[in-house]
Amino acid sequence: MESWLRILFLFGCLFPAFVECRIRRYNFNVMMKTTTRLCSSKPIATVNGKFPGPTIYAREGDTVLVNVVNHAKYNVSIHWHGIRQLRSGWSDGPAYITQCPIQPGQNYVYNFTITGQRGTLFWHAHILWLRATMHGALVILPKLRVPYPFPKPDHEAVIILAEWWKSDTEAVINQAIKSGLAPNVSDAHTINGHPGTISNCPSQGGYTLSVDPGKSYMLRVINAALNEELFFKIAGHKMTVVEVDATYVKPFKTDTIIIAPGQTTNVIVTADQGSGKYMVAASPFMDAPIAVDNVTATATLHYSGTLASSITTLTSTPPKNATPVANNFVDSLRSLNSKKYPAKVPKNVDHSLFFTVGLGVNPCPTCKQGNGSRVVASINNVTFTMPTVALLQAHFFGIKGVYTTDFPPNPPFKFNYTGTLPTNLATISGTKVYRLPYNATVQLVLQDTGIISPENHPIHLHGFNFFAVGKGVGNFNPKTDPNNFNLVDPVERNTIGVPSGGWVAIRFRADNPGVWFMHCHLEIHTTWGLKMAFLVDNGKGPNESLLPPPKDLPKC
Prior knowledge:
Blueprint: H1 2-14, E1 23-37, E2 40-47, E3 56-59, E4 63-70, E5 78-81, E6 107-113, E7 119-125, E8 135-141, E9 155-164, H2 169-179, E10 188-191, E11 208-211, E12 216-223, E13 229-234, E14 239-244, E15 247-254, E16 256-259, E17 264-270, E18 277-285, E19 297-303, E20 312-313, H3 323-331, E21 351-363, E22 373-379, E23 382-384, H4 391-397, E24 428-430, E25 433-436, E26 440-448, E27 457-461, E28 466-473, E29 492-493, E30 495-498, E31 502-510, E32 514-520, H5 523-528, E33 531-536
Parallel strand pairs: 1-4, 3-8, 9-12, 11-19, 18-20, 21-26, 23-24, 25-33
Antiparallel strand pairs: 1-2, 4-6, 5-7, 7-8, 9-10, 12-17, 13-16, 13-18, 14-15, 14-17, 18-19, 21-22, 26-31, 27-30, 27-32, 28-29, 28-31, 32-33
């Protein structure tokens, strides 16, 4: 069915007299569906009964209307990850940040216009751990008659990487919260919903991408995993990277990409091997002493005319702690910065912020497995407390007592962040936001800490793209490190990895009024409290204010 929708969409955009091209309407029915993987079945939360969920197709400039009807037993909300949501924060999706969740039996129409964006993004549930199985691609094609800034590929395919637990993921996180300890890691990784060949489950198949010799294919790679960064490789083939997070980059070739949860990467692969079957692999990256799912997901690149019984050409995956491989990829990313697609990096900074991101330990008398303590996470030592009224509603309607605007611009106490640990590992809790005037320019340095363990944190900012102007290992030095910032063609993203035991610096312009969530896209860290929000005030111009909420906005 999805392929027919895509054909109709493309037909309509080629022949707009037949099909209206500006409004895209989708129906998302959230439902439980019993699904079998790894020779084991369980009910999972899905959209339209699919895992992964349906792909949304649109063009730059289109308005997208998605009617989400909740037939499941859980409260639900859906985030359109990477969509700017200019003045339309009511459709951003994070539960209790921009909306109350959609309760069972209720519905909500997400309504947003795609302004100045084209490329690969994705959508996912943004409540509990439901995004483990509730996610799908969001493909934004360029405007009609606007070419790609690279040779147009002959074909394209969506590749969604994810994780699979044999257990109910809600039970997994609930047990972890009860114990105060980390949750069980997943049982497998998946490529387009399938783990591939698994030794203890011979019937478990994998995804196959069929290719014709000599043709080029743009793969829209999405990491929808809950908690793990992944390497992605194709045996015998190089990949040309042309885009990340729906922004064009200077093309470069590689045999391995690194992609964190919340990130997307478009690569072009040419079927230049003539014939055969080639392994596609997704394997974990973790350069800290933290448990991960070590099972490699596999799929097959299958040349037309090759017998199914042919031997598959294999590839070796990088060691899970292959930091140099990851750094080589990340350091190769540069904005295209062409005349048509300039990198508008803020040169002057109105707000210079320094946020530590990491873990902590707080008392928990009921956490027997954790010996009376629980692992938490924080930004600037603030473990975020989720409100019971959506922050955006509280802001718009002036509801008092929901949040405070005293989120600290710097760590409340300084220590050797990547060295000697402080004696007190406790955090404070609160629903704190950082307030920004409209159009202010922001430089934010995100510093990993070594509390419990250093770790790479993929930080996602809602409502904005930002430029990654610098990164380094150890502690950020405000006197010398800015001298090495790239203010010419830094990569533009919506999700950035804070290096394990290091820092990253980003810049953005606060030109989108509303309340915008920022959090680690490792779901366990979000659960533990590694999250905060920016409150951006209205501007003074006619198009610089948050629009009123829609009449069907869900109620808490």
